[in-house]
Amino acid sequence: MQLPPGFSNPNDPWVCKLKRSIYGLKQASRQWFSKLSSSLLHFGFAKSDPNLFIRQTSNSFMSYPLITDCLKSGLYKWAGDAQSFNKEGPYIELVTSPNNPDGYVRQSVVNKSGGILVHDLAYYWPQYSPIAAAADHDIMLFTVSKSTGHAGMRIGWALVKDEEVAKKMVKYVELNTIGVSKDSQLRAAKVLQVVTDGCKYPTSKEGSLFDFAAHLMEERWKLLRAAVRQSGLFTLPEFPHGSCRFLNISFAPRPAFAWLKCEAPIDDCEAFLRSNNILTRSGIHFGVGPQYVRISMLDRDENYDVFVERLSTIHLRQSMQVDETAE
Ligand SMILES: Cc1ncc(COP(=O)(O)O)c(C=O)c1O
Predict the structure, then answer these.
(1) InterPro entries given for it (predicted)?
(2) How far is the CA of 323 from the centre of ligand 1 (A)?
(3) Looking at domain 209-326, what is its CATH homologous superfamily?
(4) Nearest-CA residue for atom 3 of ligand 1
(5) Would you tell me the crossing angle of helices 209-231 and 182-200 to the nearest 10 degrees?
(6) pLDDT of residue 44
(7) In CATH terms, is domain 90-200 a member of 3.40.640.10?
(8) What CA–CA distance (Å, rounded) separates 52 from 162?
(9) Which of 72, 98, 96, 94 has the alpha carbon at shortest distance from 85?
């Protein structure tokens, strides 16, 4: 039996057994559309009506261009959004996944050889996103602030496969910071130890820190979606469900930031929300228009509750203002 051209290497003798076919069945077209929609949503498309998918690209974590430009390195400079990168020669691609600001899971998009990929996995934790598989990239960055919520130490870590690269990174951090505070390192190590022990030997019926945090994020996203529905003025991205191999459940992502869009006629979402006593960061800082804002979902309970309450009652305040101007 011969495979069609392009499907395998002629020296490679594998033949695949087809386990299931969706063609020719009564439900084939429905299944096909369901697979297509979940894949498009997975790649960051938004569904604007049942058959229309739109991709609103939002660039990377805003600190990367700022830091790169500030360093003014002779070795590299910021080259813009990876989606539109088409230069020849070596390059570094930063893959922030789940992405800040929009929360979508990302893959590398620059399809060339000679690149170094740095995976920023600050948000690849089960409270935000289903953990599809153990992360296994050459260079992976993490931070305590987003994994356990201990933001005060500002400590992160990297998992790096190549020992020489790892040594260079350690040297760079040492020179750049004159040594990271031992106090912070010890506290971060202790926090991570307690969290990992809590996963291996849970002492409470609530489970590990990740069970607790996943539940909290789920509740917060529920409240936010209800407030957005009530206001009728905004939209939020939709995320497809995925199975989480860490929590052993299937759920839709609940990102650390809400990527909120103000619908027409509001064209400056940040200004509109500020006039309603809600402080956010405009989409213009992330390479998209001012209709978008990024909202932190990780604030303290008291602040989060006030935020949701203000958001859900905006339409009431707006209509009161219209009434007052009409009088
Ligand atoms: C994508 C991403 N990577 C890295 C960081 C750095 O995190 P920290 O400075 O809290 O360690 C942040 C912080 O917001 C982030 O959003």
Answers:
(1) Alliinase_C, Ethylene_sulfur-biosynth, PyrdxlP-dep_Trfase, PyrdxlP-dep_Trfase_major, PyrdxlP-dep_Trfase_small, RVT_2
(2) 44
(3) Aspartate Aminotransferase, domain 1 (3.90.1150.10)
(4) 122
(5) 90
(6) 61
(7) yes
(8) 44
(9) 94
